[in-house]
Amino acid sequence: MSDKPVVLMPEDIQRLMGKDAQRNNIMAAKLVAEIVKTTLGPKGMDKMLVSPTGEIIVTNDGVTILDEMQIEHPAAKMMVEIARTQESEVGDGTTTAVMLAGKLLENAEKLLDRKIHPTVITKGYRLAAEKAQEILKDISIRITSEDKEVLKQIAMTAMTGKGAEDSRERFSEILIAAVSQISTDGKIDINDIKIQKSKGDGIKDTELISGIVLDKGKTSQDMPQIVHNAKIALIDFPLELKSPEINTSVSINSPEQLQSFLIQEERTIKEMVDRVRASGANVIFCQKGIDDFAQFLLSKSKIYAARRISKSDMEKISKATGGKIVSNLGLLNSNELGNANIVEEVIHGEDKLTYIRGCQNPKALTILIRGGTEHVIDEIERALKDGLGDIISSLKTGLIVPGGGAIEMELSKRLKEFSQGLSGREQLAVEEFASALEFIPATLAENAGIDPIDILTELRSRHDAGERNVGLNLFNNRIENVLEARIIEPYQIKSQAINSASEVAIMILRIDDVIASQDKRKKGMNMNGLPNRFEEF
To answer: Count of domains in the chain?
Structure first.
């Protein structure tokens, strides 16, 4: 037999095994949590993210930060995935979910140092996560769509610390009004609320439009600036001659033939415009193009027209005005038209916007965000989306929980009690899961410049005394009943965060071998630490 070594993988494969793989992955996850932890809570700080092209984003939104960082470490990417899931499912709580996952892995590392097997830790974490969900449901408070004041406070809590601080009360009223309007038999689709941004004026000029605002102006200056009692045609066919789909040649042998060809072209377009006019429409929104000659004819008929409207905007206009999107010119008639009191072109600075106002019982609305700079407007948009997500999430489940770290402290206390009834080493894992939950109130205190040890000590003491709604009110830096202080969060934020964080922590803990092949076109991954790109950040 030959003594030649057996080569399984090519030389450019890098491999980490056993403890090295576990510690490497845990370190990456902890670093991700460390990056976003300073943004948590109303006193959290912002991050400035600068792209290679010089574009700047200033935000404290967890998922935005992690997305823009372009993280490459495989375990760190899994942490980013938590934030994306939290954002898509609830719309808020991304920082909480990432921090919780990071702390669970940090605490698991202590148990690994004590020679406790990863399988035992993951079993304990699963038990703790299931029990936490039971406790969470048990201590949640039920609400209905009639509890407007509670919903308002939920929205205000979500927007606190996100650049919308001064106007959060007004913004919360806008969001409640929007959600109430689009609700159909208790069903709410967040896509029915369009958020349109326009630079100019101040944040306080942000408004709710009972209709749709488009980032398009009229196609011709000769068209009317404003149309009252608008009859709106929504068409997704072009008001121009279709180009042949295959190569076509037209042979013209004389000037008369050319003239005849042009006349026929104009006649066809005129017939199309006449059909639109015959339907009674005085406003046209076209998903495709509108020919210059068609624009001229529409202008003469005092018809307002805008072209190349996106499909999603067409659907929103349809819901707002009651009009039907027509795909065939022959099907266009007065019954397919939508209605609005006013359609108007408004110029804000360099932006040309079309306002569709005064829709009767619209099922799609627009929140028009105003602000001095693009960075401010973008951050206000993120704040409004968080508030919107929290309201819709609360209405969907009908459950809310106290904020300010109160729910985490109560869950931690009850999980520690639960762990006392367990035998074996799983008990230690449940205890570490419970202490990981205390990371949230401790970070809230730390970000506000308060001693986290003092805060945790007092919170533990008061929760042990049965005050389960006691948390940290960062508006006055006091520990008090946060329900009475109206610091409220949706149940689903906490439920989803615990689910996602525990699942990813368990998955990372079960990895004992990392095999990475290098891309020859890029810098390789340094398997003894983090990827070069992550280290450079």
So the answer is: 2
- Least confident stretch, 194-198, 470-474, 515-519: 515-519
User: 39, 95, 96, 321: which one is catalytic?
Assistant: 95
pLDDT value at residue 430:
93
SS3 assignment for 336-404: HCEEEEEEEEEEECCEEEEEEECCCCCCCEEEEEEECCHHHHHHHHHHHHHHHHHHHHHHHHCEEEECC
What was the pLDDT predicted at 251? 64
**Pair (216, 356) in one structural domain:** yes
61 is catalytic: yes
Question: The domain containing residue 454 runs over which residues?
Answer: 13-142+402-536
Residue range 249-274: average pLDDT? Answer: 71
Both 220 and 352 in one domain: the answer is yes
The answer to whether position 328 is within a domain reads yes
**160 domain residue, yes or no:** no
With beta carbons less than 8 A apart as the criterion, state whether 268 and 375 touch: no
Single out the catalytic residue among 354, 386, 390, 443.
386
390 is catalytic: no
Q: Is 95 a catalytic residue?
A: yes
Is 268 marked active-site?
Answer: no
Q: Give the pLDDT confidence score for residue 249 in this predicted structure.
A: 61
Average pLDDT over residues 349-357: 84
